[in-house]
Write a structure and sequence with these properties.
Strand order of the largest sheet: 1-4-5
Helix content: 40-55%
Number of strands: 7
Shape: globular
Radius of gyration: 22 Å
Strand content: 15-25%
Number of helices: 10
Distance between the termini: 18 Å
Largest sheet: 3 strands, antiparallel
C-alpha cells in the first residue's frame, strides 16, 4: 500500500448544504508487489476503515491467498491490515525504512546543536553545512569526506553523537542491501546482530527509539 498526497478540493455536501472538503488530499493505493507493480485499487483518505472497506470488495480466495503486505511506516495501515487480513505478515518497504533512518539522523543533529549552542543551527555552523553529507551513504562519500568523518570522531561530544548515529544508519542499510542478494540466514545473521547491538550500546535516544520502531 502506498499513500499519494494531492491538493484538497472544496465542494458542497448534499446533505448539509455546506461547503467543505469534497476531496481528501490523501489517497491510498494498492499495488501488486510481486507482479508488475500494477495498481489494483485506490481509495480516498488513509483511515483504518478505508483499507478493510476496499478489501471487502476483493474475492475471498484472493484475500486468503495473500501472505505478505508491504506498507510505509504507518500505524494506521498496520492496524487496517490486522483488521482486514489478520493472517498476513506485514513488512515495511526499504525506502521508508531508510527514510526513517535519515530522519533519525536529522533529529539527532538538531538536538545536539540545541544542546551545544543553545539555539537552532545556522548556515555558519559546521553541522549545518554538513547536514546533507550526513544523509549520504558510505559508498557515495569521497576519501576526503570519509577522512574528515573519522577525524571528527575524536572531536566534540556532538560530533561523536552524529558519527555514532550515522554508523547506525549505515549498519541498517547494509542489512537491507542483503534482501536483494538471495543471502541465506548465515550471511544475514551477523548484520542482523550488528545493527541492534550498535544501537543498544550507543546510548543515544534517537537511535534507541529508531531500533524500537524497526523491531515492531
Amino acid at each position: 500500500m502506498r499513500t499519494r498526497r494531492g491538493k484538497p478540493r472544496l465542494g458542497t455536501r448534499p446533505r448539509h448544504r455546506q461547503t467543505g472538503g469534497a476531496r481528501d488530499r490523501w489517497h491510498t493505493g494498492f499495488t501488486d508487489a510481486l507482479g508488475a507493480c500494477a495498481l489494483l485499487g485506490q481509495v480516498e483518505d488513509r483511515s483504518v476503515a478505508d483499507v478493510p472497506a476496499w478489501l471487502a470488495t476483493t474475492p475471498l480466495t484472493w484475500r486468503k491467498s495473500t501472505t505478505h503486505v508491504a506498507i510505509d511506516v504507518s500505524a494506521t495501515y498496520r492496524a487496517a491490515i490486522r483488521t482486514g487480513v489478520p493472517r498476513t505478515r506485514v513488512a515495511v518497504d526499504h525506502f521508508h525504512v531508510a527514510q526513517l533512518a535519515n530522519k533519525m539522523l536529522s533529529a539527532a543533529r538538531r538536538r545536539t546543536t540545541a544542546e551545544v549552542r543553545g539555539r537552532r543551527g545556522r548556515a555558519t555552523d559546521p553541522k549545518w553545512s554538513a547536514r546533507w553529507r550526513l544523509l549520504r551513504s558510505r559508498e557515495d562519500l569521497t576519501d576526503e569526506q570519509s577522512r574528515r568523518r573519522g577525524t571528527r570522531r575524536r572531536g566534540a561530544i556532538g560530533q561523536q553523537t552524529l558519527l555514532t548515529t550515522w554508523i547506525a544508519k549505515e549498519n541498517l542499510r547494509s542489512l537491507l542491501a542483503l534482501a536483494m542478494t538471495g543471502a541465506d540466514w548465515n550471511q544475514v545473521g551477523r548484520p542482523r546482530w550488528k545493527f541492534p547491538t550498535w544501537c543498544a550500546d550507543s546510548d543515544i535516544p534517537e537511535v534507541r527509539q529508531f531500533t524500537v520502531t524497526v523491531d515492531r
